[in-house]
Design a protein that fits this description.
This protein is α/β, with parallel strands linked by helices and 241 residues long. The protein has a single domain, classed as Ribonuclease Z/Hydroxyacylglutathione hydrolase-like (Metallo-beta-lactamase, Chain A, 4-Layer Sandwich), CATH 3.60.15.10. 27% of the residues lie in helices and 26% in strands. It has seven helices and 15 strands. It has helices at residues 43-53, 67-70, 73-79, 91-95, 182-185, 190-202, 220-240; strands at residues 2-6, 9-14, 21-27, 32-35, 57-61, 84-88, 124-126, 131-132, 135-139, 148-152, 157-161, 164-165, 171-172, 207-210, 216-217. Helix 6 runs antiparallel to helix 7 (220-240). The mean pLDDT is 95. Bound molecules: zinc ion.
Length: 241
């Protein structure tokens, strides 16, 4: 595991070179928020990283239901009985193996790998505008139907989850980076993802933190270019029909 720190944010990267999977510890005054829980073996590494910061993990928040973001949720919830669990409301069905879509959603099949045996019960179900510690909940659907990002208003850090990747270059979800195409293969609905990418870029973050790839400082220009590339792809798709 590689740890990269910037201000209040600590990126914990598993398999950083071959198949980077990130989760994050965000510092509050006297405790930590854990964003995503990584792979099935990640639990003890996450607990070790928190211990080094000398602060307890008080909140665990999941950005979306894909297995590489939730695999050690049950282990961590058990190891941290005092931590509150925050889940995006729409992702709850997916966390229980139900891939059916709501009548109001685009009827495209949900993609990617899910664990269907998550037992942890949430303490809070998140919607737009809620806060997890200092982090504001920003719905960023498209990669999955209910994915969220988290925006730290103290220093304009955006944890965008898989709405963007920085591995292999800066790409918005749904655009295929052939050096690391997996987030794109697991993306549900391109036009919805494009709207979310625009919304994330409009926040004008100072630091971009993603599910796959390194932290990116002053990401404005790169995010704008990634949005433009996805717009092109979306318009080509429309011409196909
Ligand atoms: Zn994902």
């Amino acid at each position: 595991m590689r740890v990269t720190s910037h201000g209040r944010l600590h990126q914990l990267a598993f398999f950083p070179r071959i198949f980077p999977v990130n989760c994050y510890l965000v510092e509050e005054e006297d405790n930590l928020t854990l964003v995503d829980t990584g792979l099935s073996y990640s639990c003890r590494f996450i607990l070790g990283a928190a211990k080094k910061r000398n602060k307890p993990i008080k909140r665990i928040v999941i950005t979306h239901a894909h297995s590489d973001h939730v695999a050690s949720l049950d282990h961590l919830a058990k190891a941290l009985p005092n931590a509150s669990i925050y889940l995006p409301r729409r992702e709850l069905k997916l966390l229980h193996g139900d891939r059916t879509l709501l009548p109001t959603e685009p009827q495209a099949p949900v993609k990617g790998g899910f664990i269907t045996k998550i037992r942890t019960r949430p303490d809070y179900l998140l919607k737009e505008g809620d806060y997890v510690g200092s982090l504001r909940v920003i719905p960023l659907p498209g990669h999955t139907p209910g994915m969220i990002g988290l925006f730290d208003e103290r220093d304009r850090t955006l944890i965008a989850s898989d709405a963007f990747q920085t591995q292999g270059g800066v790409y918005a979800a749904g655009d295929t980076c052939w050096r690391f195409p997996f987030p794109s293969f697991a993306t549900w609905h391109l036009p919805t993802s494009l709207d979310s990418a625009r919304k994330a870029a409009a926040l004008e973050p100072e630091l971009l933190a993603v599910g796959h790839g390194r932290l990116l400082h002053r990401p404005g220009e790169a995010m704008k270019k990634a949005v433009q590339r996805l717009e092109k792809k979306a318009s080509l798709r429309l011409e196909e029909f």
